[in-house]
Amino acid sequence: MYIKQFFLKISLFNNLMLQTRCLSHYPFSGKISLYLHRARLIDSIRVILRSNSPRSLISLLNDPSVDYFVVANAFRSAPSPDSALSLNEILKTIPHFRHTPATIRALAKILAKSQRNAELKNLVDDIDAGKFWNVRVTFMDLMKWHAAAGDLESVLHAWNRYRVSGKQVSIEAYNIVMRLYVLMGKDSEAMQIFHKIISEGALPNCRTYTVVIEHLANSGKLDSAIKVFNMLPLLRIRRTLRQYSVLIEGFTSINRFDVVKSLLDEMQIDGILPVRAMQLSLQRMREAGFVKETGEFLRGMLPDERIKNVGFCVDSSDDEDEENVDQSCDDAGVDGVRLKPWLDPRALANALNDWDPNEVLALEEANFIWTTRLVCKILRNFNSPKAAWEFFCWVAYQPGGFNHDIYTVQRMMTLLARHGHVELVGKLLLKVRREEIRLPVSSIRLIIDFYGISKNADAALKVFHDAESLCGPMSKLYLMLLYSSLLRTLTKCGRNADALDVLEQMFLGGICPDVPTFSGLMYHFGLEGDFKTVQKLFMMVRQSGLEPDAYMLKVLIHGYCKGERSALALRVFEHMKSLNLMPDAATKNLLVKSLWKEGRRREAASVEERCNVINYSLPSALRGHLWTMSSADLTRVYDIYSNSFATVEGQNLQME
C-alpha cells in the first residue's frame, strides 16, 4: 500500500513538473495573461473541431502550453462525442501531455453522454487498475457517469455499494437515482426513492424538488407541480431557474397565461435572472396580449450585439491555418466556422482573487464585454470578498455602458454578508434606497442568515427593520419567513432576550411562527438549560392552534435528556403516544439511557417494553429539520406527488 502511495506521489510530482516546464517556454506576466492565452487556445481547438482540418489540430496540440486546463475545457466544448474522442486519440501522440483528474472526468462525461458504455467501462477499469496514477473514482462519479449513459443497472450497482460502504450517502446520490427512474418512465420507482429520502432522514434539496416538479410537469400534472413549487418557501428551499423554466413552458403550452404571469412576478420576488430558453414561451404570451408583463423580460433576452464571434477560416492549402481575429470578415466560406468566445467565469475570478494592479491592467486591455449575467457569475466564483468588492466597483466604470442592477447588487450584498462585511453591505443598501431599487425578500433573508454565521446580531436587526422599505409590501408568509430567519440569527448570536422580544413582536403583528421555527427555538433554549422558556414555547404552540409533529417532540426529548431532565422527557414521550406518534430508534435509546442514568429504571424498562411491543420497527429517522421543514409539510409534498400517480403500477406508499 505504501509503495503504491509513493509512486502516486512521484507521478503527481512528475506531472506537475512537466506542466511547469511546458509553461516555462511561454512566460506570462500574470494570471490574466495566462487565462487569456488558454482561452485563445481553447477557442482555436473549438473551431478546428468543427472544421475539416485535423492536421492543424495536431500542430496546435504540440504547442507546449496546451495543458490539462486547455484539454479539459476543449473536451467539454467539443461539438460532438466523436470529435472529443478524436481529440483524445491525437493527444495520445503528444509527448508532453499527461492526463489529470480534470481531463479524465471530462472524457468520462463525454463517453457517458454518448452512451458508449463499453468504452466508459474500459476507462473506469483503467482507472481502477492504476493506469492513471493520479485519478480516483468515487461512487458519485460512477453514478453520475452511468446515469448520463442511461445505464440503470450500473447506477443501481454503484448506489448499492455506496449505501453499504459505511459512508454518509449524499442527497445527490438519491437525486441521481430518482431522476434516472423519471427519465425511464418508472413512476412508482421514482416515488419510492423520494419516500426513501424522507423515511431515512435525508434532507431533500432544491435539486430533489426540481426532479419532482419536472416529473409532474412532463407527465401533464401541472397543477400538482405548481402546488409543490408553491410549498418550497415554507420548506426554506430555494426556488431555481430550472423550476421556473419548466413551469413557464408547461403552462404556456396550455395557454394558462394567468399562471405564467404569477410565475414571472414570483421570479422577480426571488431575484432570479431569466434565461434565453424562456424566450419562445414569453413571445407566445406576448402574442396573447400580455405585452406589458413580458416586455422587460424579452428585452433582457435579446442577443448582445457587442459580443462578436470567434472566426477561423479554414484554408484548403497545405499552409498553416490562420486564426482570423478580424471580425469584419463575415463571409467565412463553406468551411468557415464562427463561435462565441470561450469564457470561464470561475477561472477568471480565480485569476483576479489577489486583485493585483498588473492583473487589472491586463483585464482592462482584454476589452471584455460586461453583462449582468457575466458579472453575476464572476462575483459568485470569487473566494475573496475584498477582491469581489474591488471588481464590483471597478466594473461599474468600464467603457461599454455597463450599469449595476438588482441582480448584481444582490449578489454582491449576499457575498459581503456571508463574510461579515457589515459596513460595505450598509453602503450598498444606501445605494438601493437612493436609487429606489426593490430588493428580493430572499436576498434580505440571506443577509440576515449570513449575519447569524458572522455573529452580527445588531446588523441583522437593522436590516430586518428596514426590510419593508427595501422590498416593499410583503405577504404574511414572507414576513413569517423573515421573522424566522431573524430569530435563528439572534439565537446563534446568543441574544436570547432579543429573540423573545422579537417573538412577542411577531405575535403582536398577527404573524404566527411555524412548527420548524418553534422547534428551533425550543432546541436552542433546551441547550441553554432554560426549560421554563422551553415549556412556555410549547404552550404557545398549543395556543396557536399548531399541531406538534413527531420531530418537534423528538427535539424536546433530546433537549430534556441533555439537560438531565428525564422526567420531562418521559412526559413528552407519553404525549407522543397519545398522538399515535413514535420516536425514532435513536431518540428512544437516548430516553432509556437518560432514565436509567437518573435512577428511573422502572420507567426506562416501561419505555423499552412499549416500544418493543409495536408490530413494526421504530423509524430510523423522523421527518423534519430545525428551523426549516416540518414533518407535516414533507408529508404534504409527498402526498401531492404520490396522489398524482395513484394509478401507476404498484401500490401507493403510505407515510407513517
Topology:
Blueprint: H1 2-24, H2 31-49, H3 54-61, H4 68-77, H5 81-91, H6 101-113, H7 117-128, H8 139-148, H9 152-163, H10 171-183, H11 187-199, H12 206-218, H13 222-231, H14 241-253, H15 257-270, H16 279-287, H17 291-300, E1 310-313, E2 322-324, E3 337-339, H18 345-351, H19 357-366, H20 372-380, H21 385-395, H22 406-418, H23 422-434, H24 441-453, H25 457-465, H26 467-471, H27 476-492, H28 496-508, H29 515-527, H30 531-543, H31 550-562, H32 566-578, H33 585-597, H34 601-612, H35 631-643
Antiparallel strand pairs: 1-2, 1-3
Q: What does this entry look like structurally?
A:
- The protein is mostly helical and 656 residues long.
- The chain is 64% helix and 2% strand.
- The protein is built from 35 helices and three strands.
- It has a three-stranded antiparallel sheet, with helices on one face.
- α16 runs antiparallel to α17 (291-300) and α27 packs antiparallel against α28.
- The radius of gyration is 29 Å and the shape is globular.
- The two termini are 48 Å apart.
- The model is unreliable at 1-25, 310-335 and 648-653 (pLDDT under 50).
